[in-house]
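Table S7 (text form). Paired inputs.
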Amino acid sequence: MAKSKPKTALVLTGGGARAAYQVGVLSAIAQWYPRVHTSPFTIYCGTSAGAINAVSLASHASCFRLGVKKLSWLWRRLSTSRVIASHPSALIGHLLSQTGQRFQSHYQPPIPFGLLNNRPLRYLLNQTINFNKLNYQLLAGHLHGLSVTASNYQTGQSVSFFQGDPEIPPWVRARAVGRRSQISTEHLLASSAIPFMFPASRIGHEFYGDGAIHQIAPLRPAVKMDAERILILDLTTGIRQSAQINHAAPGLAMLGGHLMNAIFADTLSADLEHLQRLNQVASALTPSQQQQLGLRHIDVLHLRPSEPFEPLAKRFYPHMPIALRSLLKLLGINAGQDATLASYLLFEPAYLRQLIDIGYRDAHNHQSDILSLLTD
């Protein structure tokens, strides 16, 4: 009997505007396959902006190049106004609405707090992602599983909403659960709702925010959906060199950037180390022992940006709508002090195209490693 094709997972981490980097990597990979070819990935796991990329690609699993082309077209034409209501009247109206909600009677439930209004993002997702295609990809066998991770503000749990093969069971672990769901716009808005910046999204009777907040094991959804290989497209750019460190007292810009890095970057390394230890244990066991203990060896490739995004964010920060820059300046946030926060919020074409180009080059620089993982 012919050996079945290994299940390969694509794990896309969160990072706001930085997720354009993932599009560059995927654009390079798509060129290595024929024009009409199924995706090399059968499992997609996404968090925050990475979840948007994951769902978009999963809906085109039957034609990998087409899925990547559509995603690239979207990111190359994205702008702040298509993600955030950035017109002066819209910004002021949103802030007045948020302020008025705090003075309502106690029996009137307040709307979720968010400094920025992401209603344009809701409209964009509804227009560009066909969620009904996910069921077709599952029935056709091109897709095995898809997960979108969000953080439950009520319980403090990391919840991975997944849609996939009926044999994939839900899971419950310490502060993390996997819940079978029909993925929709609400799940993507929840997963990408950066704390304080965007309002929480309601799913059922509970409110959810950015999936990276409580995500202590970013690789768990892929492992639980039976992945045998995992390609991780990380958006963290490593520790700054001493020459790049700002020695001024930390202001709100630096504190905000530090918080964003903590949310998106601190757990993946620990989870990778844990998986490597499990791989060592699995390699020392016989196949029957592995099956008895529920262990298996999982090949992993971790790809991260080769250069920092902060200098680019500082360079293109003036491209951000002036009303939004003025609001951030009132709060003490500007790219001159620290561009880390700006690198997450700068949804402007010139900046995004630079990130896509970096991802494209990095993929070509690691072509042999990527193809080694994806090729049978």
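Next pair, protein 2 of 2.
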Amino acid sequence: MAAVGGVAAVDVGGFAYAGGWLASFSGPGALTPARFADRFENVYGRHDGFRRNHAKGLSATGTFVSSGAAAEICRAAVFQPGSVPVIGRFSLGGGLPGQADKPDAVRGLGLLFQAGGQQWRTAMINIPVFTDSTPQGFYERLLATKPLPGTGKPDPQQMAAFLDRHPETVAAMKIIRQSPPSSGFADSTFYGLNAFYFTNSAGATVPVRWAVVPLQPGQPKPAPSPGATGKDFLFDDLIRTLAQGPRQWRLAITLGAPGDATDDPTKPWPPSRRTVDAGTLTIDAVHTEEAGNARDINFDPLVLPDGISASDDPIPKARSAVYARSFSRRAEEPKSPSEVDVARVLS
């Protein structure tokens, strides 16, 4: 946990990095970071002290042991052979910190690697492609999926109209439906989704995407119904699992080829692309969110070490700016207790 100490100062640098994108908005109809944050609050309500998206979560700590194999394609210190500390956060998609866990809820894993005096931050989810190709599409989908009072479900007409305008989302949802979720966090594969560039020590650059793939033995099993197991069954299961011992994932780096989309996360790359086994991520503990742990980390996807750079994908740039706005809002708000309590589960 001592590794968290210098995070706040680095976050300021991350906000400055996103500043160019923030300053590029102009005009009365511009899709600004503030409007994006407002849209989350409009859809989910305002919950002081919590993230506007992925509000429900648990902090985590662990290590990453690099195999050294990725050093061939990336000069970042994190890929040199050896072990580095990792701070993580498991979460559910959406802006409701007290939402009930559901088997098909989008699960997130944010990671902060610290190596060579630099940080690499990544925020991944458990679906193989993203649902939107542009920030505008994501913004429109937020409103289309807003639950109606009484039914708790989106307006079908509004959702149908959105999908008519966004065939890329229809195609992405078809791919997502073909990859049913595993039983819980510990046996989920988490995907980075967006393309980035790796540059090695010789200056050669290649487009990449990454994922962390569980190493636990056994086949994923269907998740139990939440009604039979409690409101927080996904998180409770993770807490109990890690109390029995660490869980591990393999960091798989996929190399893109000419013609592979680097600007559209709704489009998968062919499964035949070369994959590099970069090393092993071990999560050995989770923690109730409180001051001093991952609760106060902004998992800005553009906080990158030397050797990793952004591609032409517009989503990470938008996320960086909106994350900064969300972080600055919740940093000034009173903190409410986390829905998920490790001590309660283990007592």
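The longest strand covers residues 275-287.
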